[in-house]
Design brief:
Largest sheet of chain A: 7 strands, mixed
Shape of chain B: globular
Oligomer: heterodimer
Strand order of the largest sheet of chain A: 1-3-2-4-5-6-12
Number of helices of chain B: 14
CATH topology of the largest domain in chain A: Rossmann fold
Strand order of the largest sheet of chain B: 1-2
Order of helices and strands of chain A: HEEHEHEHEEHEHEHEHEHEHEEE
Number of strands of chain A: 14
Structural class of chain A: alpha/beta
Shape of chain A: elongated
Strand content of chain B: under 5%
CATH architecture of the largest domain in chain A: 3-Layer(aba) Sandwich
CATH class of chain B: Mainly Alpha
Number of domains of chain B: 1
Structural class of chain B: mainly alpha
Helix content of chain A: 40-55%
């Protein structure tokens, strides 16, 4: 092999350091939502810290967006956002930073339970109420948990499909990553929902939440089976990928159902006639601010709030969907 | 041929079988045989299955063409997947949100790819940073740029309007053109694009002096320099070409997804490298070629398709893919001992 001359070692190291900086840097993108109480007549101003585990997912970007929009309606709320970029220890540091800067309330959407339980408990001990969003922590040292139930959503999707197909037909299931809890729950809930009907799952594959993979798997299903009535995908991009595959193959008469219902994804697909239905996996952002205000005003809040889902289909998408419980 | 005795024919066959091309070809034949055995109720015998296998392999294949050029210089390009995402995002913004014509979008996208590749090339060839590190840095940088340009959201046909709602625009003509089929619906346009890229890269590598320079650099960079090969220039150009091909792949990806996803292409660089290596191009540089890469692309592409039509669970797929890559590379290496 060609040996590099000495001075280049330095360059190599410098670029390594640069890479490290690129990875580690710029994590504390703090934005303020709602200007903190300008006039003296305004109610007491509160600062809320929001620790997000990963802004790489559009759904979590939406969660922050929901929190920002909800907080903007209250001029006395100021929200500081931190993104841990899918790094548990970074998120732990963010929680500790919020505690030492003495925010009035902490909202956290934790990356994982075990390593973040203690830092959150310490925030509680320091007198800062904590609202946990979407993923759970261990124990009960938090003020309130707000989250949705994937199993319930999967079941609702299953029941809707039974009703829409009249209880029989061939189904292709494109599953989210099966080593992840949402993927498993959306599958088992769906099985519960279609139990007792004559629906047959003729092809199921793990598309790992990825649209290109969903398209690939759907192509395989199309080349194997001449009669497919409906595709149930565990997320909207998956359903969209399946739709593109069927359209390219010139196959018609297939219905497509997805989950998540982000405004610019699933809901948009339903409005455009691409998907037949999508079930919302709510971010809980607006509810978190609502609950935060109650906590800050000294009202009691339930320990756990399970969010319902919304159905968006062709009939109701223009009216903003239909609440399911 | 018509004059050759059976023994000569046999010798020729053995010779072919022990050449890199012969081994890669055997691997592909073996893969097709596996397909006919596990044909998923005859799905493997339908034309559509093969068209789809080729479509699926095309984006990887385009990346593999660029990686071949770089690997022949004993380099490596880890940034192709991120550059693909960056270009997919840029392409979608220009074509969907700004409504630019394809005649403008494609050149700008290629320019973005060339610039990214050029950056890696200059850092590697001119500043002599190891290609692994230089392209690792570009991989992170380009991914960050893709997220920055898109604001972390997919750039789709739902365009946010001033009142906070969404307007739906048509899928641009460029996307429709790339994601369509020709020859009576039996060949995807992306596959044609892949074959054109492959042909151009093959011409450059085996018919142009630049290609000979790449082989010389990969064989022995110092010797190449001493014999007058413009090492810095030729190497930089290899990374520029890889960047440009990543841009082509990015356009194909955006067209097929009908959106620009800043998270697209994660792990594609490893797939591209695996395809190059399974074909028989050496990671040590100086040996290999585009024909081999084509065989590698087809082998992995068909492996993927066979696993998919048989609905093999994910865990099994990963293990089988790993085993097959190692086996294929081992058979490739036997000739060198």
């Amino acid at each position: 092999m060609n040996s590099q001359p000495k001075p280049n070692c330095l360059l190599a190291w410098m670029s390594l350091v640069l890479t490290a900086l690129l990875w580690g840097g710029c994590s504390d993108s703090s934005k303020t939502a709602g200007d903190a109480a300008k006039s003296d007549a305004a109610p007491r101003a509160y600062t809320i810290g929001m620790s997000q585990c990963n802004l790489g997912e559009p759904w979590r970007v939406q969660m922050n967006e929901d929190i920002k929009n909800a907080a903007a309606k209250h001029s006395n709320l100021k929200v500081i956002f931190k993104d841990a970029q899918n790094d548990t220890l970074k998120q732990r540091a963010h929680v500790e930073e919020f505690v030492s800067s003495k925010v009035d309330l902490l909202i956290i959407s934790p990356k994982e339970a075990q390593p973040l339980t203690e830092p959150v408990a310490r925030a509680m001990e320091a007198g800062i109420p904590v609202i946990v969003l979407d993923r759970r922590l261990l124990g009960d040292k938090y003020t309130c948990f707000i989250g949705a139930d994937n199993k319930k959503i999967g079941k609702a999707a299953g029941e809707w499909i039974v009703k829409t197909l009249g209880g029989q037909g061939n189904i292709v299931e494109l599953m989210g990553l099966q080593t992840s809890t949402p993927g498993q729950d959306r599958h088992s809930g769906f099985l519960e929902g279609i139990a007792g009907s004559n629906l047959k799952i003729i092809f199921s594959a793990d598309m790992k939440w990825l649209e290109p993979d969903a398209r690939k798997e759907m192509e395989s299903a199309l080349s194997r089976f001449d009669k497919i009535d409906l595709v149930y995908a565990h997320n909207d991009p998956g359903a969209h990928g399946a739709y593109l595959a069927a359209k390219a193959a010139g196959r018609t008469g297939i219905k497509f159902v997805g989950i998540d219902a982000l405004p610019q994804e699933g809901v948009a697909y339903v409005s455009q006639g691409i998907l037949d239905a999508t079930f919302q996996y709510p971010t809980g952002g607006a509810e978190a601010i609502e609950t935060a205000l109650k906590v800050l005003h000294g009202e009691t809040v339930p320990k756990e709030i399970v969010l319902g889902t919304r159905l968006f289909d062709k009939a109701n998408v223009a009216q903003g969907g239909q609440e399911l419980n | 041929m018509n004059e050759s005795s059976p023994i000569q024919t046999r010798n020729r066959f053995v010779q072919f079988g022990s050449s890199p091309a012969g081994r890669a070809f055997l691997a592909l034949l073996l893969m097709l045989l596996v397909g006919t055995l596990f044909n998923a109720d005859g799905a493997f015998f339908k034309i559509g299955t093969h068209r789809d296998a080729l479509r699926q392999a095309s984006v990887y294949g385009i990346l593999a063409c660029g990686s071949t050029l770089v690997i022949i210089t004993a380099g490596i390009d880890l940034a192709v997947g991120s550059v693909l995402a960056l270009v997919a995002v840029c392409c979608s913004m220009m074509a969907i949100h700004w409504g630019w014509s394809g005649w403008l979008v494609v050149p700008v996208c290629l320019l973005v790819g060339c610039a990214s590749g050029g950056l890696a090339g200059v850092v590697t060839a001119r500043l002599r940073v190891q290609p692994f590190i230089a392209t690792l840095a570009l991989m992170v940088l380009a991914r960050g740029a893709a997220k920055y340009a898109s604001g972390g959201m997919k750039v789709s046909t739902a365009v946010k309007n001033a009142s906070g709602g969404y307007d739906y625009v048509d899928v641009p003509a460029l996307f429709r053109l790339v994601d369509t089929r020709i020859l009576g619906g039996n060949l995807s346009v992306v596959t044609v694009i892949f074959l054109i890229c492959l042909a151009l890269a093959w011409l450059a590598l085996s018919k142009h002096s630049w290609g000979r320079h790449l082989y010389a650099i990969g064989g022995n960079e110092e010797a190449a320099r001493l014999s007058g090969v413009p090492v810095v220039w030729a190497k930089t150009l290899a990374y520029v070409a890889s960047g440009m091909l990543s841009a082509v792949a990015g356009i194909c990806q955006a067209a097929q997804e009908q959106q620009g996803d800043p998270e697209a292409g994660v792990g594609y660089e490893l797939m591209a490298i695996a395809m190059v290596v399974i074909g028989g191009t050496s990671l040590m540089g100086g040996r290999g070629g585009m024909g081999l890469t084509l065989l590698g692309v087809l082998t992995i592409g068909y492996l993927d398709k066979i696993l998919s039509i048989n609905a093999v669970p994910e865990a099994g797929r990963l293990m089988l893919t790993g085993i097959i890559i190692v086996t294929a590379v081992l058979t490739q290496q036997r000739k060198r001992t």
